[in-house]
Structures are given as C-alpha cells and as structure tokens.
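Section: Multi-chain targets

For targets with more than one molecule, the full set of components is provided together so that the structure can be written out for the assembly as a whole rather than chain by chain. Components appear in the order listed by the source. The example entry contains two components.
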Amino acid sequence: MERDDVIEYSLHTHHSEEEGKKIRKKIYFVTFLLSAITAVEVVIGILWGRSTVHGFWWETIKWFYIALTIVKAAYIVLVFMHLGDERKNLKLMILVPYLVFMLYLIFILLKEANAVGSVWATHV
Amino acid sequence: MAGHASEHIDSANAWGGKESPFRVSYGKLMMWFFLVSDALTFGGFLIAYGFSRHAHQGEWPIGEETFHSLPFLEGNYPLMYVAFMTFLLIISSVTMVLSVEAGHRMDKKGVIKWLVATVIGGIIFVGSQAWEWSHFIHGSKFGKVELADGSKAVVHAEQFGEIQNFTVQTAGHHYKAGQVLTNKDLDLLHEFQHAVEAGHVKDKMITLHDGSVAKIAKSNDVGMYLVVKEAGSKYELRQHIEGAEATKLYYDAAYSGEAKRIVYGANMERNEYGPRQYANYFFFITGFHGFHVSIGILINIIVLIGCIKGTYHARGHYEMVEKAGLYWHFVDLVWVFVFTFFYLV
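Its structure, encoded as tokens over all components, is:
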C-alpha cells in the first residue's frame, strides 16, 4: 500500500500520550473561555438590553459584542479547527482572501444601506 | 552556465514536486476549500441581512424582545434559550475536537465515545431549533397591533387575561344557541387569535369557524404596554404607550372586525416582530444553518460507523474524523455569528 512517490501527511499527525494530555488541557481551557465569553454576552444582554440602552453606551456594547464574537471565532478556527497548527502558507491562503473579501462586502453594505435607508426615510 | 548547475539550492527552499506546499493531505485541503466557499455563502447571507437591517433602522426587532421564552415556562427569560443553544453547540464542538485528539493517539474507544457525544449534542441542537422555529411561527398571545392612526406596535404584558368561554348567541352549523364553549369543546385561544386576525371579532362578539356567533368572556390583561415600531399619524417610532390607553388601543383594533389589524406569529408574508424581511432572513439563515447541522450529524454518524467497523484503524490514521470535525466546527463557527447578529446586537 505504501507508495514512495506520495507523502501520507495523514500519518504525520499522530502524537503521544503526554502530548495528548497537553492538547486536552488546551482544549479544556478554550472550552472554558468560549463558555465564559458567551455567559458574559448573555449577562450584558439581560442587564443592559438594547431597549434600555441608547446612544454612546449602546454603540460601546455593540462593538464589545462584535469584538467578543471575533475572539470566539478566532479560537474556534485556530484551536478547534487546528488552523493555528498548520503551515503558515495554508493559514494565509485560507484567511487572507476571505477576510479581504468580507471586509470589502461589509464596507459596501454599510455604505449602501445608509444611502437606501435615507431614501426610504424621505421618499417612501 | 556550468556555474548554475553547481549552485547549491537548499532542499527546504526548493520544491521537488513530491511534497505538498501546504503539508496537508488532499482530503483535508479540499475540505478547507469547501469550507471557505461555504463561509462565503454564509457571509453573503449575513451581509444581506445586515444590509436590510441597517436600511430599516428603528423598526428592526430587538433580539431580547423577540426571543424571551423557555419551553414549559411562562414569563420573560430574555436570551436564555439561545444562550443554551450556543452553549450546547460549543460543548458538541469540544467533544468533536476531543474525538479528533483521541484519533491522533489511535485510541479507537475514545474516538467512538466522543463522536457519540457529538452526535447527541447535534441532535439536541436541531431539536432546540425546531422548538425555536415553532415558537417563532406561532408567536405571542398578543401579536403585533395596527393602531387607529396607522402606526404599528408590538405588545408587551405581564400576563394575558385568560379566555374563559364563548357563549353562543346565534347558532351555526355546529354549535347551538345558548351553548357555553370551553377549552373542552375547542381551543379557545387558537379560535380567538384566528378570528381576531381574520377580522371576525366585533364588539366582543366572535364569529366561529362554523358560522355561529358567540360572546367572549375574557379576563383582563395585566400590565400591558405597546412599543411603536412603525410610526403613524399620531404615534412616533419607539414611543411607549402604557396603562388604560394601551389596553383601549389594543382592543379597539382587536375587536374592530377588520382583518389583519392584529398579526400573530410569523410567515413569509407578515410577522409580529418587525419588517417582513426580518422573518424571511430568520427562516432562511437559521434554516440553512440547521440544514448544515443536520448534514453534520449525518456525516458524523457515517464516520462513527467507520470507526466502529475499524476502517480508519486499519488505515493507520483517523483523518476522516478530523475532516468531519472541520465541518462540524465550521457549523459552530457560523452559529457564533448568527448568535451575535440575530440575537445580541
């Protein structure tokens, strides 16, 4: 079965019992972190709901939520999906085009929605 | 020329063609490609959602006002249910990554154990989503009301006054005059909401589905207040209307005999929470996500069978678990964003 012209990368991912312990420790840490972040989000949502907080403070809470979301997403992708352990060029190939494209779309969305919203507000 | 041939190139820098530049197997790389394209799809959906939401501004529903119920319990528990769903998905992501870790140690029993846990977590999640959808579709007891001035408001209250009975005044096909209908005869709340939405209730008299006309006996609601979501000629956006004024405005609309003054729950055309697109996006995005979870459960079950049969053990590695895991974590990743942009922000 073993072919010498193909490298079986799948066989290189094995690790020992001790390494496993370390990896599990990291997994439990991330579990705790993700749960804690979610708990913080929900507590903020209950204490300072959007219907009670306005203006500057709501903007602050909103950006705080978005920051926490990105932290959560980063831990899921880098630790749970093991992208952090992959080679640098694989990481870049996956993340950079996606993020560039998404940031561009978000920019368009905000720009266009503001324009359309103001037209709706004044003409409809 | 000869000089070039003798020039030494470090083997770490030269690509001989045999090695993958990414040092991962073909299958894993292709899974990543798929996930990037799927992430673009979800990204596109959420961007479209953000666009509509941003353009609508004030009328857009608030997460904690729309999602505040728990199964089997009355009362107000904002965000608790979705928090539970989020936690569930995080935990099932953890069991998946533990399964992958066990695979790296060739621990067959461990892989199977954690994979079973993942499948169970996924099934509970999809079940929770089904409840969430059902609740969203059926809506609250009050619905959304269109007030006399044309403004539209959502209704909040501590308690919905119970409907005691309908006393039939004019007989129809089914019920006789003088008959007192209770929940034993028909679902009073369901019949009431149906009639109110269709405009079959006028001055406390309800026309039932069989054509009979009955008098409604209903207790008073407690602590009702309205929040205006669409301005009319009198009331402004986000205005709170409380007390007797709220009750009068609400029942003037409910007992007006006009159709669609009160809207309950949600469908593709109208919903009680906010603009039409809101429910459409809710169904589409959470539906597409739920579909992904269902497919993930299926993939996990197939991989689980492979594990139990020893297919991967014989192969010498558990990379199939890792690839299924990538997909599963991706589903969790999407939920993190759905949670933020549908429920929190």
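DSSP finds three helices and no strands in chain A.
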